[in-house]
Design brief:
The chain is of the alpha+beta class. It is built from 13 helices and ten strands. Helix 10 packs across helix 12 and helix 10 packs parallel to helix 13. The radius of gyration is 32 Å and the shape is elongated.
């Protein structure tokens, strides 16, 4: 195509005016820097999202069954026994979650308790997140043991090994209440502090306490009920096949959630922040691309004699406009390719060398460097954006070139 060949020649040929050369390079650099910035920022969000997924998986099961209506699953133990017959399941554990009041050494704190059965430590990988004490599923000498989140331990001033137990209070679900004795309206449970865990996620670290399932049932007046059933799978198991098999057993009264669905709001928030940032940086890219219009305007004026010659040779407005449309698109494409390469180099350099650190006291941070994860789908989206913006610039440049006589 003649227009493309002429546009390529204009792109690489030295201009007669030095200012045109400088502005042209600035235009390409502007597009390249904006493109690299978008790729780097999206990759950082991907890195944080992956870390969040890894950290959340410490306390989230592969699959979780919850009731669609109501709060509990009746006969949860028998349902768990039925599910255990499905090939590919590893552990099936009923759990109970509720809000109660914790009191330790005169301090009070509303907490979120989770009653867990024996085997939960292996399912959740508790040993990887314990920062003080030792997790135990065996009954204590006097009291069963509670596992506190780091926020709960700090707010209550509690530490493993303390001789003073922690006391949990929950309103009675059944039975009569004596107005003359307000304390009779609550059920209590006393536990020894076994250990403290930290996941790096505020929703888990602020007010969580893990207690034995039998203690949770006792304080909440449950028998065989559970608020959920958590399931771990064999590494080679197909999650979708097992979900279908479970659905056939439990029917339509329950929902089955995988890891992502269990933390849907968290992932939606990260994704929303990512694409809002993308939209803002895309606007920066559009603004940077308008420098290309300035470059093309000066180039069109410089090539006025050439345009006149082409018209004399029979070129019409469409052909003249096509030359500078290709020119604008090539400038944007050159900047986009350069920016993509630069962005990938920076991202992989950060992955390898971890050069950029997070501000703050390293001892207080769960991660100390900016995490980066390159997704080629994001790279494709960014490059497509560059091409679309280039086509817009090309259309504007073509319209301007057609008016030159």
């Amino acid at each position: 195509m003649v227009q493309l060949r002429i546009a390529v020649r204009y792109l690489f040929a030295r201009k007669s005016h030095r200012a045109v050369n400088i502005i042209s390079r600035i235009s390409v650099a502007g597009v390249a820097v904006a493109t690299a910035a978008i790729i780097c920022v999206l990759s950082v969000f991907n890195g944080f999202s992956e870390i969040s997924r890894e950290r959340l998986s410490k306390l989230e099961a592969d699959l979780r069954i919850e009731p669609l209506k109501g709060k509990t699953i009746p006969s949860a133990d028998s349902i768990a026994a039925e599910i255990s017959q499905i090939s590919g399941t590893k552990q099936i554990l009923p759990v109970i979650e509720e809000r109660v009041l914790a009191i330790y050494s005169g301090r009070q704190l509303p907490v979120h308790i989770k009653g867990v059965a024996e085997g939960y430590a292996e399912m959740a990988g508790i040993s990887d997140i314990i920062i003080d004490g030792e997790y135990s599923e065996h009954p204590g000498e006097e009291y069963n043991k509670a596992t506190l989140s780091v926020g709960t331990a700090i707010n209550l001033g509690a530490r493993p090994g303390s001789v003073e137990p922690i006391i949990l209070y929950a309103p009675k679900r059944v039975g009569k209440i004596n107005p003359a004795s307000p304390a009779s309206a609550f059920r209590t449970d006393t536990l020894e502090i076994g250990c403290v865990f930290e996941t790096g996620q505020s929703e888990y670290d602020t007010d969580r306490i893990l207690i034995p399932l039998e203690d949770a049932r006792a304080i909440l007046d449950y028998d065989t009920e559970a608020t959920a059933i958590e399931i771990s799978l064999d590494p080679a198991a197909n999650s979708n096949d097992i979900r279908n098999a479970i659905s056939n057993i439990i029917g339509d009264s329950y929902k089955i959630l995988d890891r992502t669905m269990q933390q849907e709001q968290s992932y939606k928030m990260i994704s929303m922040e990512k694409w809002i940032t993308f939209a803002m940086l895309a606007f920066v890219l559009v603004i940077a691309s308008f420098n290309v219009i300035s470059t093309l305007s000066m180039l069109i004026i410089e090539k006025r004699d050439n345009i006149t010659t082409l018209r004399s040779l029979g070129a019409d407005n469409a052909q003249i406009g096509g030359i500078f449309a290709w020119e604008g698109w090539l400038i944007s494409l050159t900047g986009g390719i350069g920016g993509t390469i630069l962005g990938l180099i920076l991202c992989y350099a950060q992955q390898w060398g971890e050069f950029i650190k997070l501000n703050g006291d390293p001892s207080q941070l769960s991660i100390t460097v900016y995490p980066v994860l390159v997704k080629w789908s994001d790279v494709g989206i960014v490059f497509a954006l560059v091409c679309v913006v280039g086509l817009l610039i090309a259309a504007i440049s073509s319209a301007f070139a057609k008016k030159i006589r």
